[in-house]
Design goal:
The chain is α+β, with helices and mostly antiparallel strands. It has a domain at about 25-260: 4-Layer Sandwich (Purple Acid Phosphatase, chain A, domain 2), CATH 3.60.21.10. A hairpin with a 5-residue loop joins strand 24 (about 385-390) and strand 25. It is globular, with a radius of gyration of 27 Å. It comes from Flavobacterium phragmitis. This is Calcineurin-like phosphoesterase. Keywords: Signal. InterPro entries: Calcineurin-like_PHP, GpdQ_catalytic, Metallo-depent_PP-like, PQQ_b-propeller_rpt, PQQ_rpt_dom, Quinoprotein_ADH-like_sf, WD40/YVTN_repeat-like_dom_sf.
Length: about 625
């Protein structure tokens, strides 16, 4: 009799559990996987780990996957192709956005990613939700996260159109958390605040964590390999009627519930700005990653949607505009009514400044993302495959050297018969400027540490010495004739931002502590660390942590230093004291340039061009 009651109870329990499971399956729950911070290099541990994760997902009942950036370590073409080949094995739909490791050091300036994965955005509906994702950069240089202006406009337009006559709620996806690690996070939140946004998913921090982004529920997914390397896992998400539940799924183990957030729309409260911003001379519809060029009447600039524009300086009207198709990072230069622009497709193109008509094209190859220099109607620049010297008037190639194994972004140095480039292949190259022949090349002794390259540094020189810094935080001085190392010091933590005084007597550098360093450029000085420290001077710019690589400019006894947060510090060069701080915006200052009247201009990533003074 007792056994009969036990069997009956077990049977009832089985029916109840079966009924619960069936109800759960039919309840309208949405189940998906978030993969983030994969950091795959061909043949590394994460390469094989991702393959195993894909196999595990294929044997589950999850409906789709979202990949929130940092697919690779360096954004290299072979890494991107490898990740794509692995993700393509998924039997469920998957949606991908890039992370900073795809956009910051991309050897193709983003072209390969676009060819493989398509547009770096997604939007789709599932159940009661609209899923939407966009990239956060930074693009082709060290910086904070930043959502391109055109992506913010797309976000607003897409949400407005998709939610028209709809009761769907929004789930947002980005690589970065939507806090001050994204320069324009307030602008993004101001869009999401207009719609029924429930939560935002992100990566970047490598740790599974719940956040509150100004009232918006935030979910940071774990990287597939934990920071200590001990845990191999990914993120499972189950959306029910009342909540969004997050599980951490280790390989070959059941998912473990970690936390949940409500499934109702968040109440976003955006922090107010407390500083007054200077109005831009031009505010473009897209982002800007280069410096403008000038003639007597017009300003010329490029943007992140591939446009080249000529603007009248007097009335700000657009004289002409031409489209190239992809983002432009190359700073244009004018030589005798010829506007020269480099593209990420590998072409150097000459345009007539008056009409905007294309006059000549040189297929250099690789990507052109740097800042050129001109002398005697000749333009010198580098792509990721060649150094080139060309006649800027005729478009005729004078010489081409195919030594570089990556791209170059800093302004080359011309000293006597030499031209010197820093390249993201760990080397600095010194060429004969008349023939293009190699005179010497230098690196720090480790050609595998390419992220320590002087690839985005405006090096300076005296007659006999070359001064530069690198992301390794060393200041290095070389003999300009031989390339021999004369001094290397890590006394000051300067990453990339540097410049030269107008009289040529001083090198300026901005440290990662927000200090301005001044050291002498003196061929007669005995080069020791002790001597350099004794004759140097440091000024606190009150910027705090800094990594903006923008070059430092001196003009008319004023030093201009740009920050990662849109600030420009103006310093009296003689007194070495701060004159003022100019607040231009929230994004990185690209750098400074001087027009034909001797006026100083700056551009910001957020699409503003500013006349400073």
């Amino acid at each position: 009799m007792i056994m009969k009651h036990v069997v009956t109870r077990i049977l009832l329990l089985f029916i109840m559990v079966s009924g619960f499971s069936q109800n759960a399956e039919n309840s309208g729950n949405i189940k998906f996987v978030q993969l983030t911070d994969l950091h795959v290099s061909v043949g590394n541990d994460n390469d094989f780990l991702l393959q195993n994760i894909v196999k595990e997902i294929n044997n589950s009942d999850f409906e789709f996957a979202v990949v929130t950036g940092d697919l690779t370590n360096r954004g290299a073409d072979d890494e991107l192709k490898q990740v794509h080949s692995i993700l393509s094995q998924l039997k469920i739909p998957y949606y991908v956005i890039s992370g900073n490791h795809e956009t910051n050091w991309s050897e193709s300036a983003g072209l390969t990613y676009k060819k493989i994965f398509g547009e770096d955005r997604f939007v789709f509906s599932k159940g009661d939700y609209l899923f939407i994702g966009f990239p956060c950069g930074p693009y082709m240089k060290m910086g904070d996260g930043f959502v391109k202006h055109e992506d913010v406009l797309w976000l607003d337009k897409t949400l407005k159109e998709s939610l028209k006559n709809s009761n769907k709620k929004v789930l947002n996806f980005a690589h970065y958390p939507l806090d001050n690690s994204v320069s324009n996070y307030k602008e993004v939140l101001s869009v999401l605040e207009k719609y029924p946004t429930v939560a935002t998913f992100c990566g970047h921090g490598h740790t599974l964590r719940k956040y509150d982004f100004s009232g918006l529920s935030g979910i940071m997914g774990t990287s597939i390999t934990s920071l200590d390397g001990k845990t191999k896992s990914y993120n499972q998400v189950i959306i029910s009627k009342d909540s969004i539940s997050i599980y951490q799924k280790e390989i070959d183990k059941p998912g473990v519930f970690k936390f949940s957030v409500p499934s109702k729309p968040s109440k976003i409260t955006i922090p107010k700005d407390s500083v007054t911003m200077q109005s831009p001379f031009i505010k473009d519809i897209a982002s800007i990653y280069s410096l403008p060029a000038f003639d007597k009447k017009n300003l010329y600039f490029t943007n992140s949607i591939g446009e080249i524009k000529s603007v009248n300086l007097k009335n700000k009207n657009v004289n002409w505009k031409t489209e190239t198709g992809n983002s432009i990072y190359f700073s244009p230069i004018i030589i005798k009514s010829n506007l020269v622009v480099g593209t990420i497709e590998g072409n150097m193109v000459g345009y007539d400044t008056q009409s905007g008509k294309q006059k000549w094209t040189i297929p250099v190859g690789g990507v052109l993302v740097g800042s050129p220099i001109a002398e005697n109607n000749k333009i010198y620049t580098a792509s990721s495959k060649a150094f080139i010297c060309a006649d800027a008037v005729t478009g005729k190639v004078i010489w081409q050297n195919n030594l570089p194994a990556s791209y170059s972004q800093g302004v080359p140095v011309i000293q006597g018969n030499k031209i010197i480039f820093g390249v993201w292949d760990s080397y600095i190259y010194c060429l004969d400027k008349n023939t293009g022949n190699l005179i010497w090349k230098w690196n720090n002794g480790n050609d595998q540490q390419i992220l320590y390259s002087a690839g985005n540094v405006n090096m300076v020189s005296s007659k006999n010495r070359l001064y530069f810094v690198t992301p390794q935080r060393f200041l290095t001085v070389l003999d300009i004739e031989t390339g021999k190392t004369l001094l290397r010091t890590s006394k000051w933590k300067i990453r990339e931002s540097m410049g030269k005084s107008q009289d040529g007597k001083w090198m300026y550098g901005k440290t990662m502590d927000g200090l301005l360093l001044r050291v002498p450029i003196n061929d007669e000085m005995e080069l020791t660390e002790e001597n350099m420290i004794a004759q140097s001077k440091v000024l606190d710019l009150k910027l705090g942590y800094e990594h903006n690589p923008a070059g430092i400019l001196e003009n008319k006894n004023k030093i201009y230093v740009g920050s990662r947060k849109g600030e420009v510090i103006v310093v009296d060069a003689a007194k070495f004291e701060i004159i003022k701080q100019i607040n231009l915006g929230s994004s990185s200052v690209n750098g400074f340039t001087i027009d034909d009247k001797g006026q100083v201009w700056a551009s910001l990533i957020e699409g503003g061009i500013f006349l400073l003074e």
